[in-house]
Amino acid sequence: xxxxxxxxxxxxxxxxxxxxxxxxxxxxxxxxxxxxxxxxxxxxxxxxxxxxxxxxxxxxxxxxxxxxxxxxxxxxxxxxxxxxxxxxxxxxxxxxxxxxxxxxxxxxxxxxxxxxxxxxxxxxxxxxxxxxxxxxxxxxxxxxxxxxxxxxxxxxxxx
Length: 159
Description:
Elements: E1 5-6, E2 13-14, H1 21-38, H2 41-49, E3 54-58, E4 62-68, E5 77-82, E6 85-92, E7 111-118, E8 129-133, E9 136-142, H3 146-149
Antiparallel strand pairs: 1-2, 3-4, 4-9, 5-6, 6-7, 8-9
């Protein structure tokens, strides 16, 4: 049986993935890049961070960061704040048996991700909170009261 799937982008049918040399080439290139990046955490972080999209807004009282993480739970994600840098990292795992099943389209991605965001120094670290609901991670980073963050002018004396 030669299954053909319709592609709305091309207007043509798609042959089975195993019959298409371009699909095979794409899989091999993905494996090569995965092998290269697995030994280079800094590169992996930089590349993976492009997949994690954030919304960041500020109001008078706090910074608010939101990230869509469909298919994940709070156990799959780690959030840290250190030295003015917010880090969100985790891993999305998709279990599939590629040896015994016939796959026609594989578009859902899996793997680790990381994203770092530098924030101003006026964050009240003890009051940072995060919640995970319906695949959306929301982080609130309250600001310190204004008087604690004011700059102090230092008088320069002549010698």
